[in-house]
Design brief:
The chain is mainly beta. Helices cover 5% and strands 39% of the residues. The chain is globular.
């Protein structure tokens, strides 16, 4: 079971607990976290995961699993994915090599931004993207041999896999696809449209999907 909450920062009013018994797992804020790199003549050093820093940003997650992918060709799409409760996952995503076009879609029934998406470009400059529970996530690689790493707040559960097809017209995502078309797996190509999806998440407050920078 995923144990993750995006807790309000001290400057924000505290939200009521939801049915899962934790604060804000259906938070509407996707967080883009800037890199902190210390450079010298040798190169640079960076702390890539500091739990107290995330807590100060309002993120309280246990991350029991790390994942990594290598995509050989630019134009490779992975997603749009999520896991259903009780195995739902929040994600902390980094691009270790190259650049990716990252996509987050609100799939919370009753949300004021249901079906809407936001996009952001991640690079190997060290920034990270936090995606709360209640959203589908995917990306397209913009360079060859792109490597993406992400922490997840719940273990992989094949019985809980869910997703949306990347080119659903209802999502209106402006993918930067190459002229030859994207590269994706047969399974991702066969994912359902939003209108065909049995939505596993309910909106419990927090407002519409937004992107914040930290």
């Amino acid at each position: 079971m995923s144990r993750c909450a995006r807790r309000p920062s001290r400057s924000r009013p505290r939200r009521p607990r939801n049915s899962s018994g934790v604060d804000g797992p259906n938070d509407s804020r996707v967080l883009l976290i800037g890199a902190r790199r210390h450079a010298d003549a040798r190169g640079w050093f960076s702390e890539t995961f500091v739990a107290p820093r995330l807590k100060a940003l309002g993120i309280a997650c246990d991350f029991p699993q790390d994942n990594m992918s290598l995509s050989r060709e630019a134009g490779t799409i992975r997603g749009l994915h999520f896991q259903r409760p009780p195995s739902a996952q929040a994600k902390l995503i980094s691009c270790l090599r190259g650049r990716i076009f990252d996509v987050v879609v609100d799939v919370r029934t009753g949300s004021p931004s249901y079906g809407r998406s936001l996009t952001v470009e991640l690079t190997d400059g060290g920034e990270q993207l936090f995606v709360p529970v209640g959203f589908a996530h995917g990306f397209m690689t913009l360079t060859d041999d792109a490597i993406v790493a992400y922490k997840v707040s719940g273990l992989y559960d094949p019985s809980a896999e869910g997703g949306l097809v990347w080119n659903d017209p209802a999502l209106a995502i402006d993918w930067p696809t190459p002229a030859r078309g994207p590269t994706l797996s047969d399974r991702d190509a066969a994912l359902p449209r939003l209108s065909e999806l049995d939505i596993p998440f309910e909106y419990e407050g927090g407002g519409p999907l937004t992107l914040e920078r930290a």
